[in-house]
Amino acid sequence: METAAASTLCRSLNVIIGREWGRRGCTRRFLLLRTLKAECRPRALCIRRPYSTELAYQTGAERRPVWDSCRTSTVCGRQEKKNLKDSGRDSDSALRHVNYLERQKGLQVLRQALQINGVDPSPAAPSPSGEDLEVPLQGAEVLLPDLAQGTQEWLNLRKNRITASAFSTALGFWKGDRRAELWEEKIGLREPFSGNEATKWGSTQEAGAVEKYKTITGNNVEHVAFKIYKAGDEYLSWLGASPDGLIIYKNDEEQPRAVNHRFGVLEVKCPHNKGRPESGAPWDMVPAYYMPQAQGLLEIYDREIMDFYVWTVNGSAVFRINRDPEYWGFMFRIMSELWWGHIVPASIALKKGKSVADVQIFRPSDNHAGTAQIVQMSRDLARKSPMIWREHKGDMYLPEVEEIA
């Protein structure tokens, strides 16, 4: 029983970490669970520090894991050092500081998850630094249900996905408690956002804006339904998205869709202009807070380019956004921590009969340790997303012309 539970839990997180963060070139892994060797007793799950590459086991009664020092020579480490260099913070001490904060936060969330479910989270044999933690198998089971079983409880839990329009909130872009409000919504403590004047304006103008885009460009736009990320994969399908359309560029229509590399995503924005839409005008560049949504749509629908169309009563404009796997990898890691470290444990605790007050220990902070970096990456991507044409009262302007092959 213990071995099966350990295998399931480790396989769950290894798939999430290895398949997604490793494949997409994410900056670093934040948690990795492994089982002790079969001959070691008592059996336990261990949380490894980031960049740890060696795991040795002491013999005797203690049998406590011994960690090597944090290393930055791995692929993830080199990418993180590059990010620090680009942001003017290229130093090993800065990198170690980031790692330490994330490591401590991960351990704190885990201890809280165990404590609220009646499991003693104390390390079996604490190290002088307090950074090593052994988790009994019965405690680990409260963090993630047995995904392989496909229980109804887990199917119900998966219904509350994080969708593309909420990605910036999940990443901590906004001041105040909007990230915590998203958490409350996903665990059933708050009704889903029903909209405001700005969203109502956008909804009523969207259909006309799409027709305007089709008339100007001559491109076909296919409307698609909501799509689950990696549908059928229980480890990744907690994300979803619904674009305003999928584009087939007019000079590619004769190509079979299977080889059509100009099949893109359309995202339409109709700015409310702070309650004065009649005086609004297209933005000069894509707002950085829309970049998580844009990159999420490109990843979930597996497209390489997006036409980000901004429509106003006084004109419109299109920006071309290219897919960025590195950006997606970094934002995916932050959102994964919110999902697996805050939403899932709180949801399970509520289903076990815990009170609303009890689950407040899982309430996320207003932002993440990586929020500042993802915001800066969003600004950089926005600057690299050119306006390819602009329309004003029927007149066309071409600030930057991109030849469509």
Automatic annotation (TrEMBL):
| Gene3D superfamilies in the cross-refs | 3.90.320.10
Q: Which GO terms describe its biological process?
A: DNA repair
Q: Which CDD domains match?
A: PDDEXK_lambda_exonuclease-like (cd22343)
InterPro entries per the UniProt record, alphabetical: Lambda-type_endonuclease, NF-kappa-B_Signaling_Reg, PDDEXK-like_dom_sf, Restrct_endonuc-II-like, YqaJ_viral_recombinase
Domain (YqaJ viral recombinase) spans: 153-298
User: Where does the record locate the signal sequence feature?
Assistant: none
**Pfam (any one):** YqaJ
Q: What name does UniProt use for this protein?
A: YqaJ viral recombinase domain-containing protein
Native source species: Riccia sorocarpa
